[in-house]
Structures are given as structure tokens and as C-alpha cells.
């Protein structure tokens, strides 16, 4: 039964709690001296009533098994006691009492599923126990996969510190374009994608004694593929230990998939979390987050806040808004430290979220769902959950893959709430109604393999010699249609490998491929310099399309000597360019390995555009009334307003990707000649499909008018 509460009642409740803990909640001395009445006035001054979020409590209190008292982290920051206190912290983690049992179970079984509450020490402790128990004697390695780059890096750094070694020596990490390991490395944290790549050079993972597939419940595409591959090699590598670690979700399914492997459960230590819902749906969840943070800050006792948003843009906007509001409030409120965390954040900034909060201040971490289970930040008491996440979705019929903001699952929402109850009793503020939670959210997240383009995966599995993909041992097989489409596209591409054009312009195509891979983050457009930024961008425009614009940007950057200053002056994101350069180097390395000559044809863009056509011929769109239509599926699509071809509207286009925002937009488009399609993909296109229906009605001359004008 829910207990709806009026604002006043809710305020009253919060007030009562504040009375009890007033001395804790406002660290600064002068704040403490203020009376309650004054405090209430201050509160109303800060948050006018109409902008307050009205929460109702639900009768639900999440409660886990509470087995121990808190108090583990005292004295952690004293430098001289650091070593001892690290060991103390290690001993205080929920996994510690099970060290011996766990090692015995690993000894006894080849494959073990490990289930444990987030923050119980699975990722950081179990590999250390294995090292201590001798699993790396003789130079064998322990590998531990993470679905996210940030998690791999940050966990490796933490463990290196605990072990007392320099990161990259005995303990290291490996993520794409960044290998922080050495010959001495015996414990390697890596993204699941990197372990997949290792199968290419070491199909039996011979140098590993233990492989830990961590965060298995996330069910990322790469993790799902790893399941199948590792299950297979475990059959003939009886000495290999396989651990599948997961938050408290779905472990029976893992056990079932791995031939009834036993499940080792680490009892949780979780404090109760009170859950609050909004009375009515929130129209603007970003604003609601900001208001809720401030509301917590001025009314709630000490404790840090964790806010879940869907991506970098939202997180930056939220942090900006919070900082601005705090600036305006000045000394009326105690210090609020606002810290973002998302995948592309520079690592020194990432590390900041783990710094202890200074006394009297409050920390707000604004995170993507990376903080849901992969990272544990100590000291979080309050969680704000708008209930959304960014999810890849794929439509096999149209070939469209898009990232969309969707409601998260109930399982996710509960994980998020759980983050509030790790160190003490906590509160979770859900910015949606209890009704929405029950009726509008899915039970659990659909595995990525079910909603993604399988092209790359099929390619990878084929290169591992796995040809029969229809019968590959998937935990949840992808939709048949998606698999067939991926095969069809790759078959078509494969047929093109014999065409000379592909290799003749590889210099430029390498650059374009690298630039496309950094995903629309080349141009920088700060809010206060929109006009300058757009002018700078216009200066890079060349005829033919966006791919050629990207090529132009890269070429000029090379000419500048890869200059940071040049990027700054031209509103180009230096970090993205650096990444494009890394990708390009890697691709060039691959070309060398398969002995494709890298040559250049700078004068004429035709071979470049033909090569793009050869690679993306199934992404063709044709001009039609009011927009474009994709050739195979007759789906209506539009040129993205940021495109260099937005005003030109050429008759035939190849698009790099479709994104759905307000409409279905084609991003990164290039102009082509429809006759090339028959040339590069004769088995995919029929002459009839490529007949220009409009040119039949119009005199031929008119159809060419654009070129004549130009
Ligand atoms: O993997 P699991 O969620 O079970 O826990 P973990 O990541 O091994 O975290 C165990 C402890 O290490 C937690 O108290 C974290 O706060 C701490 N930790 C940390 O302080 N800094 C990191 N970079 C990673 C973990
Ligand atoms: Mg973990």
C-alpha cells in the first residue's frame, strides 16, 4: 500500500529527520547555530514551492541481508597508515569471510558462477585471492573482463594500489588503443571486446590460468559471445578455470548455460533503502534532477548523492545547472561538489569521484549507468533515478541501428536504488511514479545481442573459423532475421574484395574510416560561440559530401603537425582527432599485415566516393518528394541539418548512419552516381530498382541542372 503524502507532510517528515541530525547535516559551525525556523525559511527561499518535487514514499523498503556493522572506512586517508588500512578495508569487504570457501570451490570446479551484491569485492578481491593462492605461478595470467572501459581502468588502478605495485606492471589493463600491461603482468583487467580480440592471436587462451567474465548480468554483445567461446575452449582446456561473476541477477540462467555449473553466493550486506516516487510524472527529468539534488542538499543529513543520467551531454548540462545554481546561492548553502562520470571523461577527472568528501561538504556524482554495478563509490546515501538509460536498438528490416533514450528496466532501477544502501541506510528518489515502475518498465534489460547489428560479430566469428553461426552456442540466440541480414551484407561485401578500386585510394579511405569511427564528436560547438563554431565548420566544406569534409579536416590537421592549437582555433575536438589518429594507425597496421598496399589519389574524389559506395551500398537513399527514401526498404529519411549537403539535396546519397531524434536523419552523407551501385554491387541491386523515376518524367537536362549551375 502506498502512502501518498502532501508536500507539507513530506516536508514535515524531512524536517523531523533534520532535527535529529541537524548537527551532522550542516557541517559549518555557523550553519549549525541557526535555528530550525530560520532553516525552514532558507529552504523555502532556495526552492520555491512550485518548483519542488513532490515525492511520495512507497511502503517498499528495499532490504538486504545485513550481516555486519559499518565503520570500515575510518582512517583510510592517513598516508602513514595507508598500507595497513588498505588491508583493513580488504578484510572488511563482504567477500572476505568467504575467501577460503571460494578458493576451495574454484579448486573443485572448472566453471563457477559467483553471485554477489555490487560492492562486495568480486572484481577487486577475487583476482587477488587467486594470485595469493598461486594461480599465477610460472607466469600464467588471470584475465578479468569488464563491459566498460572506465571500469577496467579504474578497477585496475585500485587493485594495483592494493597490491602495492605500479599500474601496468604486475597488474594492468587493456582497452582498445590503450595497452597498459607488460611482460610482468599477471593480472589483466580488460574490456570484454579486448578478450574477444585475443582469441584471434591465441585461440585457446593458453597463457591464462583463470578467466573471469565479470559483470555477466550486463549481457553486452561481447560478453555473450565470450560465453559461447569460453564454454567451448573449457572443454579441451581442463586446466583453465572459468569464473562468471554477476550482481544478484539471473545467475540461474548462467548456471544453466554452463552445464549446471554451481553458483557461489556471497551474502550481501545492504542497509535498508527507502524508496520515494514522484506523485506525477516529471516533464523535464533533467531539471527535476537538479531540483532534487538541491532539495536533498538543504534538507537531508550528511551523505553523498548519486544521480543517474543517460549520457555525456545530459551529464554536462546537469553539472552546469547545478554549479550555476550553487554559485547563485553562494554562502546560503554548504559546499556542494559536483562530479561527472562517463566513458569519455579524461581519466584524471574520473579518478576524482573516489576522493573522500571533505567534512561539511556534500558530493554529487552525476553518472551514466556505469555507476549502476561496475563502479562503487563509497559514501553514497542518496540516489536520484530518473528511470532512463541510453540503449542501442536495431531494426533488422530497415538495417537501422540507433541509440535511444528509453525507460530502464525494473532490475536496473533496483540496482540503482541499491547503491544508496551500501554504507548506511539510504534513500532513493525515483523521478517517476510508482505506477510507472509497476506498469511501464520492463522486468529486465533485453540482452544487447538481440538489438544490434551483427555485422562485426559475424566477421569476428568467421575470422576465428566459426562458420556455422546459426548453430553457435548463444545463451540467447539473436533474431534469425538479424543474423541472416548480417551474413547477406558481409557476403555482398566479400564479393567486392576483388575490386581494384578499394585498394587504390586506401590512404584517404583509411582516414575517412578512422574519422567516421570517432562518432560525430569532431566539431566542437560551445553554446556561447555557436556562430564562430559554425563559421569554422563551414570553412572545411568541400563538394561531394561529409566524408570528404572529414577527410579535409584530418588532412589539414596533419599539415598543422597534429597541432592542439590548430584544433582549438578551428573548433575541432583535439581528443577526437587524437583518437581518429589512433584508429587510423591501427587500420594501417592491419592493412600492412594483410599486405594491402596503401596508396593515394588526392586529386579526384570519385574513387573515394566509389569506395564508400562499395562498403555501404546497402545504405543508399534516393531523393523523393519532401525528403529521401531508402532504396531497399522505401523508408522516409532526411539529411541531417549539420550535413554539408543539407542545402544541396543531391539525387543519390550514401549515408553512414541513421539516427532518430525528431525525425529519421541520415548522418554523414556522400553524393554518389547511381550507376556505381550496379558496378560495385550487381548481386544486390537490380537495374530496375535504380531507375530514376523522376528523370523519366523530367527532361534529362533538368535532371542535371545542379551540375550545370555548379
Ligand atoms: O565487484 P564488486 O561490485 O563486488 O566490488 P568491487 O568493485 O570489488 O569493490 C570493492 C570495494 O572496492 C568497494 O568498497 C569500492 O568502493 C572499492 N573500490 C574503490 O575504492 N575504488 C575503485 N576504483 C574500485 C573499487
Ligand atoms: Mg564488480
Short key terms for the protein model shown above:
710 residues; alpha/beta; eight-stranded mixed beta sheet; seven-stranded mixed beta sheet; 29 helices; 41% helix; binds cytidine-5'-diphosphate; binds magnesium ion
List the helices and strands and how they pair.
Elements: H1 7-25, H2 29-33, H3 36-46, E1 55-62, H4 82-92, H5 99-108, E2 111-116, H6 122-132, E3 141-146, H7 149-163, E4 171-175, E5 178-180, E6 187-191, H8 192-201, E7 208-213, H9 221-236, E8 241-246, H10 251-257, E9 263-266, E10 273-278, H11 285-299, E11 304-308, H12 312-329, E12 336-341, H13 347-351, E13 362-367, H14 370-373, E14 380-385, E15 388-395, E16 400-407, H15 410-418, E17 426-430, H16 434-439, H17 455-463, H18 480-494, H19 501-504, H20 506-517, H21 530-538, H22 546-559, H23 564-569, H24 574-593, H25 606-616, E18 620-624, E19 627-630, E20 636-639, E21 652-660, E22 664-671, H26 674-680, H27 693-697, H28 700-703, H29 705-709
Parallel strand pairs: 2-8, 2-9, 3-6, 3-7, 4-6, 7-8, 10-17, 11-13, 11-14, 12-13, 14-17, 20-22
Antiparallel strand pairs: 1-10, 4-5, 15-16, 18-19, 18-21, 19-20, 21-22
Helix pairs in contact: 6-7, 8-9, 11-12, 17-18, 20-22, 20-24
The structure holds cytidine-5'-diphosphate (CDP) and magnesium ion.
Magnesium ion (MG) binds at residues 122-123, 214.
Domain Helicase C-terminal: 292-465
EC number: 3.6.4.13
Keywords: ATP-binding, Helicase, Hydrolase, mRNA processing, mRNA splicing, Nucleotide-binding
Amino acid at each position: 500500500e502506498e502512502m501518498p503524502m502532501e508536500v507539507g507532510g513530506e516536508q514535515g517528515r524531512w524536517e523531523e529527520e533534520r532535527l535529529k541530525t541537524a548537527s551532522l547535516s550542516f557541517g559549518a559551525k555557523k550553519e549549525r547555530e541557526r535555528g530550525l525556523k530560520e532553516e525552514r525559511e532558507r529552504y523555502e527561499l532556495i526552492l520555491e514551492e512550485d518548483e519542488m518535487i513532490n515525492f511520495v514514499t512507497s511502503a517498499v523498503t528495499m532490504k538486504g541481508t545485513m550481516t555486519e556493522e559499518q565503520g570500515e572506512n575510518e582512517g583510510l586517508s592517513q598516508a602513514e597508515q595507508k598500507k595497513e588500512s588498505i588491508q583493513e578495508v580488504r578484510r572488511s569487504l563482504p567477500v572476505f569471510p568467504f575467501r577460503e570457501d571460494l578458493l576451495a570451490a574454484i579448486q573443485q570446479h572448472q566453471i563457477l558462477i559467483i553471485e554477489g551484491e555490487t560492492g562486495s569485492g568480486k572484481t577487486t578481491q577475487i583476482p587477488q585471492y587467486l594470485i595469493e593462492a598461486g594461480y599465477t605461478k610460472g607466469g600464467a595470467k588471470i584475465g578479468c573482463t569488464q563491459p566498460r572501459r572506465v571500469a577496467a581502468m579504474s578497477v585496475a588502478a585500485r587493485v594495483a594500489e592494493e597490491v602495492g605495485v605500479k599500474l601496468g606492471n604486475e597488474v594492468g589493463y587493456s582497452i582498445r588503443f590503450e595497452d597498459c600491461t607488460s611482460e610482468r603482468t599477471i593480472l589483466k583487467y580488460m574490456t570484454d571486446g579486448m578478450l574477444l580480440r585475443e582469441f584471434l592471436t591465441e585461440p585457446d587462451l593458453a597463457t591464462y590460468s583463470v578467466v573471469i567474465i565479470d559483470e555477466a548480468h550486463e549481457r553486452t554483445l561481447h560478453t555473450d559471445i565470450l560465453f559461447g567461446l569460453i564454454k567451448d575452449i573449457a572443454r579441451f582446456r581442463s586446466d583453465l578455470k572459468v569464473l562468471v561473476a554477476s550482481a544478484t541477477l539471473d545467475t540461474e540462467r548462467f548456471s544453466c548455460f554452463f552445464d549446471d555449473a554451481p553458483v557461489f553466493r556471497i551474502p550481501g550486506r545492504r542497509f535498508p533503502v527507502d524508496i520515494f516516487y514522484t506523485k506525477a510524472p516529471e516533464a523535464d527529468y533533467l531539471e527535476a534532477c537538479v531540483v532534487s539534488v538541491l532539495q536533498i542538499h538543504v534538507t537531508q543529513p550528511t551523505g553523498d548523492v548519486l544521480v543517474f543520467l543517460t549520457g555525456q551531454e545530459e551529464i554536462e548540462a546537469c553539472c552546469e545547472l547545478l554549479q550555476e545554481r550553487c554559485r547563485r546561492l553562494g554562502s546560503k548553502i554548504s559546499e556542494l561538489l559536483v562530479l561527472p562520470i562517463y566513458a569519455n571523461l579524461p581519466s584524471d577527472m574520473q579518478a576524482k569521484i573516489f576522493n573522500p568528501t571533505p567534512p561539511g561538504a556534500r558530493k554529487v556524482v552525476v553518472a551514466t549507468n556505469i555507476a549502476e554495478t561496475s563502479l562503487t563509490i563509497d559514501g553514497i546515501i542518496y540516489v536520484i533515478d530518473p528511470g532512463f538509460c541510453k540503449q542501442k536498438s536495431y531494426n533488422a528490416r530497415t538495417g537501422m541501428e540507433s541509440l535511444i533514450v528509453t525507460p530502464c528496466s525494473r532490475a536496473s532501477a533496483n540496482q540503482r536504488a541499491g547503491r544508496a544502501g551500501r554504507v548506511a541506510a539510504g534513500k532513493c528518489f525515483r523521478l517517476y511514479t510508482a505506477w510507472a515502475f509497476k506498469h511501464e518498465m520492463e522486468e529486465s534489460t533485453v540482452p544487447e545481442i538481440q538489438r544490434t547489428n551483427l555485422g562485426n560479430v559475424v566477421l569476428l566469428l568467421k575470422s576465428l573459423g566459426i562458420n556455422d553461426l546459426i548453430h553457435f552456442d548463444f545463451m540467447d540466440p539473436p533474431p534469425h532475421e538479424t543474423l541472416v541480414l548480417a551474413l547477406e551484407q558481409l557476403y555482398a561485401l566479400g564479393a567486392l574484395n576483388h575490386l581494384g578500386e578499394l585498394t587504390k585510394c586506401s590512404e584517404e579511405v583509411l582516414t575517412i574510416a578512422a574519422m567516421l569511427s570517432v562518432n560525430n564528436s569532431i566539431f566542437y560547438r560551445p553554446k556561447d560561440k555557436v556562430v564562430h563554431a559554425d563559421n569554422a565548420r563551414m570553412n572545411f566544406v568541400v563538394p561531394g559530401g561529409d566524408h570528404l569534409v572529414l577527410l579535409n579536416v584530418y588532412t589539414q590537421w596533419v599539415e598543422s603537425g597534429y597541432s592542439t592549437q590548430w584544433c582549438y582555433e578551428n573548433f575541432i575536438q583535439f581528443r577526437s582527432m587524437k583518437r581518429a589518429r589512433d584508429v587510423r594507425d591501427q587500420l594501417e597496421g592491419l592493412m600492412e599485415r594483410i599486405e594491402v598496399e596503401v596508396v593515394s589519389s588526392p586529386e579526384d574524389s570519385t574513387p573515394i566516393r566509389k569506395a564508400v559506395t562499395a562498403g555501404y551500398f546497402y545504405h543508399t537513399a534516393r531523393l523523393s518528394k519532401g525528403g529521401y527514401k531508402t532504396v531497399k526498404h522505401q523508408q522516409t529519411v532526411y539529411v541531417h541539418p549539420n550535413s554539408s549537403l543539407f542545402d544541396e539535396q543531391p539525387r543519390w546519397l550514401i549515408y553512414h548512419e541513421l539516427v532518430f531524434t525528431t525525425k529519421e536523419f541520415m548522418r554523414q552523407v556522400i553524393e554518389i552516381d547511381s550507376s556505381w551501385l550496379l558496378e560495385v554491387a550487381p548481386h544486390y541491386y537490380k537495374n530496375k530498382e535504380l531507375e530514376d523515376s523522376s528523370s523519366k518524367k523530367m527532361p534529362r537536362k533538368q535532371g542535371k541542372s545542379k551540375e550545370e549551375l555548379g
